[in-house]
Model the fold of this input.
Amino acid sequence: MPVVANIFAVSCTVEFQGSDFESQIPPSPLPRYNPAMASILVIGPHPDDQELGMGGSIARLAGQGHRVHLVDMTNGEPTPLGTPERRAKEAAAAAKILGVERTLLGLPNREVVHTLDARHRLAAVIRRHRPNWMFVPYPIDAHPDHVATTRIAEDARFDAKLTRSAIPGEPWHPKRIIYYYCTHLMMNFQPVFFLDVSGQMETKIAAVRAYESQFIENKSPVVEMVRTMNAFYGGRIGTPYAEPFFTYEALGFGGLDQLV
Done:
């Protein structure tokens, strides 16, 4: 063994004594990954779904400088205490709290159906905003509007990239679809990842409370339920609050410096 070790040492010494030694030195480590600001669409079946499912993440992403825009497939009405006009004011107030803007696609509430027309209407919005990422509801749900919204969004993502079509705008294909949870099912989720929203939790609660006709005047337990659920999710990653997400597609990371 000592002989082998000495031979190896000599061999290495001789190999790197040439004049081109410096050219064989590997380059310095790559600079820290610094992603550009992204364009993000958060698509919800009704005004308040985005706030309930990922309001903290919306506030966090917008606060980081990303361009976040909410898309409401319907106006959410009729409901027991709401009206279209009132719901629109509540939705605008919630968006302002989160630091974003929103667009109403105008499909009929309780009657959202996966059709070519609905796909192309949403594809036009995708082309207009050119998102890098799309957030859509988790595909398993008891509410037909939620299930249809996700199917429409998934297909609209494909439709938006097609050339020589009647869809307004230039072709565009969002790089990622990520699913958030606003489900009506009492089920155990298995998220792929969580986002720490401890610093945005009060902002999220304020945005949810902006829907007075849905959660305040009827003394709904939803607001405190949201806080409790986000605390539970936070406990799974060791933070006060977190929001869960799911994806079928592989996620790429520029580094692991933000893991908690």
Notes: The chain has one domain: 39-183+195-246. The longest strand covers residues 39-44. DSSP finds eight helices and seven strands in the chain. Residues 196 and 239 are 7 Å apart (CA to CA).
